[in-house]
């Protein structure tokens, strides 16, 4: 409700400035928007999630706000993408709000303060929620050496993460998406799995690895990718990242801006990818559905398509914390109805 009042002012500001301002205000007045989370506990990948609605990666890249964000009612929060070294990202402007289309185009380019900053932030806070950490490679690291970047970050954050997301699907780091296919993918995931098992032995704590994929992927590519996820014993998949397609936003003055498109124009495409993954992957393989959840019904639709958990980014910018609560409640009710139907 309060967010509905603030939003018109935020939307008058430059999009990136408005994001930063909102996060700073949230940190300063954490109780203003805080809400009890919907109680709908579920265990997935061996993790107890208080409810099935999470914050998607990219809003809190440096883990500066995750405790306050979590207090808005999220069942889990994913921070990052974090890279080994700090990097400034692309030149501004790099974030565009497509108000009519309920969408965002971004080409942030993994702007972040580096893994050491994130580590320090997480260690300095008391947090009892579920924390995912999304990892990537630095821009100047070429794909032949990408593995080293992912391994470096994984090793550093293993201890503090509840799960780790391998981001190979951002459209804003040149050639990153090539890591989603064939031998490069097999090699990358194989090495990360080895490292995960070493770290499991070392810390006596198993931290699941999930892979985040793009929506701009053919059915055949998805089939190969699914096989590799299973072969390399990856623990879960996040579908999807932003799209490079402009099919549904041709009329926007921002349509020609480079970057990834998120929000309402992504909903159907993301659902198709989730449904396709659900068909190709083993029955219980965890899927986290993300892309264009703009209302509670969209959240349930992701579950119907085959997701076990969902995440929100753009919808949260447009509709604020009520969307978290409404989505979590709608999903809880959906499962309750399913149970009743099954008994009939
Ligand atoms: C401004 C912005 C920055 C993002 N940064 C990241 C990122 O650093 N890492 C990542 O994996 N996804 C990132 N994403 C993608 C989101 O996590 C999500 O996958 C995508 O936006 C689709 O969900 P949505 O339609 O609910 O926004 C970003 C999205 C936006 C809008």
What can be said about this structure in brief?
This protein is α/β, with parallel strands linked by helices and 344 residues long. It is 41% helix and 16% strand. The longest helix is centred in the middle third of the chain and has 22 residues, at 182-203.
| Helical residue percent band | 40-55%
How many E strands?
13
Summed up, the helix count is: 12
Reported for the largest beta sheet, the result is: 8 strands, parallel, barrel
Averaged pLDDT, please?
A: 95
Q: Please name the fourth-level CATH homologous superfamily.
A: Aldolase class I
The strand line-up of the biggest sheet is: 3-4-7-8-9-10-12-13
- The third-level CATH topology is TIM Barrel
The name of the CATH architecture is Alpha-Beta Barrel
Structural class: alpha/beta
What general form does the structure show?
Answer: globular
Count of discrete structural domains: 1
Question: What percent strand?
Answer: 15-25%
Rg of Cα set: 19 Å
Flag low-confidence runs.
none
> What gap, in angstroms, lies between the N and C termini?
38 Å
């Amino acid at each position: 409700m309060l967010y509905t009042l603030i939003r018109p002012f935020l939307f008058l500001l430059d999009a990136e400035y408005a994001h930063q301002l909102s996060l700073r205000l949230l940190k300063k007045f954490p109780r203003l928007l805080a809400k009890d989370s919907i109680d709908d506990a579920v265990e997935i990948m061996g993790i107890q999630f208080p409810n099935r609605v999470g914050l998607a990666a990219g809003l809190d890249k440096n883990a500066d706000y995750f405790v306050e964000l979590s207090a808005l009612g999220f069942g889990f929060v994913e921070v990052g993408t974090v890279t080994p070294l700090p990097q400034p990202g692309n030149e501004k402007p790099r974030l565009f709000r497509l108000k009519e289309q309920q969408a965002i185009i971004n080409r942030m380019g993994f702007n972040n303060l580096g893994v050491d900053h994130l580590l320090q932030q997480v260690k300095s806070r008391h947090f009892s929620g579920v924390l995912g950490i999304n990892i990537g490679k630095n821009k100047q690291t070429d794909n032949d050496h990408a593995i080293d970047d992912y391994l470096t970050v994984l090793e550093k954050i293993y201890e503090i993460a509840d799960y780790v997301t391998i981001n190979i699907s951002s459209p804003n780091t040149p050639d990153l998406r090539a890591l989603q296919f064939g031998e490069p993918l097999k090699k990358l995931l194989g090495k990360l799995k080895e490292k995960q098992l070493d770290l499991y032995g070392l810390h006596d704590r198993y931290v699941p690895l999930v892979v985040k994929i793009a929506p701009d992927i053919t059915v055949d590519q998805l089939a190969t990718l699914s096989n590799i996820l299973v072969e390399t014993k990856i623990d879960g998949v996040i579908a999807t990242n932003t799209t490079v397609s402009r099919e549904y936003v041709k009329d926007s003055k921002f349509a020609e801006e480079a970057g990834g498109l998120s929000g309402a124009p992504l909903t159907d495409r993301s659902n198709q990818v989730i449904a396709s993954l659900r068909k190709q992957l083993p029955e219980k393989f965890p899927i986290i559905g993300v892309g264009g959840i703009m209302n509670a019904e969209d959240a349930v639709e992701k579950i119907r398509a085959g997701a076990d958990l969902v995440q929100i980014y753009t919808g949260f910018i447009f509709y604020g914390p009520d969307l978290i609560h409404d989505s979590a409640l709608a999903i809880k009710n959906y499962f309750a109805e399913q149970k009743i139907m099954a008994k009939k």
